[in-house]
Amino acid sequence: MGDGFVTTKEVMRRAKENKVVYIGRIKKNWITEIFGRKFRIEDLFENEKLCKRTVEGKEFFLASKVVNIPEVGRVKIVKCIMEDKKDPYYLVCTDWKKKPENIIKEYLKRFWIEEKHRRDKSILKLEGNYLRSERSNNGFILLMALLGNCIEYLSHKMGITFYDVVGMCSAELIRHLFT
Predict the structure, then answer these.
(1) In b/e form, how buried is each residue of 74-94, taking b as 16+ CB within 10 angstroms?
(2) pTM of the shown model
(3) Closest to 104 in 3D by CA, of 87, 79, 85
């Protein structure tokens, strides 16, 4: 799952190659194709009637289309407007068969993922280390995901908390460095 600065054609292409379902927010000026004609995402939904749906207790007005994004392939684009908002946002999903409501439901989990990243950065004393380029941000996110998943796995396998695993790993690293 990713935000607008993380969602790139390369990320989506690699996700599809590795059979990983990727859901991310995209910018309204992205170019897509339908039957060989190119459209900006925003123009794709210009005259589209929006349906009202409730997802996770929140009301949305939405529409969706299956399109081809050059260099990525077939994806589903969902236009969403939250009930209390005026401006739409657009989500892309590499699983073009997934229902729009399920795409939104998955994307709403992003808040908890962001909370996990804040926790991880705090534990690892990485607050304030914001990288400046898209490439370094992608690398940082992949490193954090790998590290976080490794710690979560150890936590589950050992039956202890995330924080205890970090403490044990830190103690073990310090022991090896100074002995």
Answers:
(1) ebbbbbbbbeeeeebbbbbbb
(2) 0.63
(3) 79
Q: Residue 33 corresponds to which amino acid?
A: E
Helix (H, G, I), strand (E, B), or coil: what is residue 65? strand
Assigned token pair, 146: 């790998």
Q: What are phi and psi of 86, to 5 degrees?
A: -100, -40
The per-residue pLDDT for range 128-176, each reduced to its tens digit, is 545 555 655 666 777 777 788 888 888 888 898 888 888 888 888 777 7
Q: What sign does the CA torsion over 46, 48, 110, 19 have? A: negative
Cα separation, 60 vs 81, whole angstroms = 6
Cα–Cα distance for residue pair 165/142, rounded to 1 Å: 20
DSSP 104: H
Q: What DSSP line would sit under 9-47, residue for residue? A: HHHHHHHHHTT---EEEE-TT-EEEETTEEEEHHHHTTT
With residues binned 3-state (H G I as helix, E B as strand, rest as coil), the percentages for the chain, rounded to 5, are 40, 25, 30
Q: What is the rounded (10 degree) CA torsion for 68, 69, 70, 71?
A: -110
3-state secondary structure of 87: coil
